[in-house]
Write a structure and sequence with these properties.
This protein has helices at 3-12, 26-30, 54-72, 76-84, 94-110, 115-130. The chain has 139 residues and is an all-alpha fold. The protein has one domain (3-130). Helix 1 packs across helix 3, helix 3 crosses helix 5 and helix 5 crosses helix 6. The chain starts with a helix and ends in a 9-residue tail after the last helix. The model is unreliable at 40-53 (pLDDT under 50).
């Protein structure tokens, strides 16, 4: 589970979606995850609409899904290179970006978000990936 990617996603979200100290308390909140993604049960009301530390758990769930989506989209080699050598990451094609975004939106809607919020979370995840989010995780 990429905690670094989850944090990078949070950093890309609109600030008003986060609790005041959510980024400052990220490590403490994420420390409870272990190797598994946070579950819906761990999110108070699973509120995409709430401005609470639960955005950390949602970002964690999304980061877990993003890794699966990237690998299932045939981009495993790109993901490995991103993590090992973020300074040499290869660009994705427009088609690859569109496919990743569409699959992320679908996954986020399945987690309980509406289409609009899912698009914001997907855009945050893509921005985090393209900036090298998750690059400190081991292979």
């Amino acid at each position: 589970m990429s905690k670094h990617l989850a944090r990078a996603i949070l950093e890309q979200l609109p600030p008003e979606w986060l609790a005041p100290d959510e980024l400052a308390e990220f490590d403490e909140n994420a420390a409870t995850w272990g190797e598994e993604a946070p579950s819906r049960e761990g999110v108070n009301g699973f509120g995409f609409d709430s401005v609470t530390p639960e955005a950390t758990a949602l970002a964690g769930m999304l980061a877990h899904a993003v890794v699966d989506i990237v690998i299932e989209s045939g981009l495993k080699a790109w993901w490995r290179q991103l993590r090992r050598h973020p300074e040499r990451r290869a660009p994705l094609t427009l088609g690859q970006l569109r496919e990743l975004r569409a699959r992320m939106i679908e996954a986020i809607v399945e987690m309980g978000a509406d289409e609009e919020k899912a698009a914001v979370f997907a855009d945050a995840a893509l921005a985090a990936l393209l900036r090298g989010g998750g690059d400190e995780e081991a292979a």
